[in-house]
Amino acid sequence: MTTVEHPAGRAQRGRNTFSARALQRVTVGVAKDAAQLSSRDVTVSLADDSGSLRVAVALPAVIAASTITEQGECVRAGVIQGLEDLAGRRVSAVDIRFSGVKQAAQRRVS
Fold first, then answer.
1. What does the buried/exposed string (b/e) look like for 79-101 if buried means 16 or more CB atoms within 10 Å of the residue's CB?
2. For residues 33 and 79, what is the distance between their CA atoms, to the nearest angstrom?
3. Measuring CA to CA, how many Å separate 98 from each of 19, 52, 72, 91?
4. CA-CA distance, 23 to 28, in Å (whole number)?
5. Residues 42-57 pLDDT 10s
6. What is the largest CA-CA distance in the chain?
7. What is the CB-side half-sphere exposure of residue 2 using CA atoms within 13 A?
8. Contacts of 81 (CB under 8 A, 6+ apart)
9. Percent of the chain at pLDDT above 90?
10. Using CA atoms, how far apart are residues 71 and 85, in angstroms rounded to an integer?
């Protein structure tokens, strides 16, 4: 059982559990935010790696100012940090596969 310090100073006992589906949806969310894509552009698969998560992400490369290598590193860092912050899960590896190319969304200036 996990003990968490409550903001008011009281210790609370219990644990948070995520279903596989919920954990996958959280992973899609953090990956799409890091890549600045929509959820439909991102697919993920999760695997157990001795208690940690091994994450595989497939998404299109975005033609923009950054390189594809930089995009991959940004997504990797976003997934690792996001899963730690939101789900309390340790990630051992994030494998990125670029499955196409997408033009960066251009904003209109009025």
1. bbebbeeebebebeebebebeee
2. 9
3. 27, 24, 9, 20
4. 9
5. 999 999 999 899 999 9
6. 55
7. 8
8. 30
9. 67
10. 21
Q: What is the average pLDDT across 65-78?
A: 92
| Amino acid found at 49 | D
86 Cβ contact list (under 8 Å, min separation 6): 26, 30
Across 90-104, average pLDDT: 93
Domains of the chain: 16-101 (3.30.300.20)
Structure tokens at 26: 């959280």
Cβ neighbours around 75 below 10 Å, total: 25
Indicate the range of 12-21, 33-42, 56-65, 70-79 predicted with least confidence: 12-21
pLDDT reading at 63 higher than 60: yes
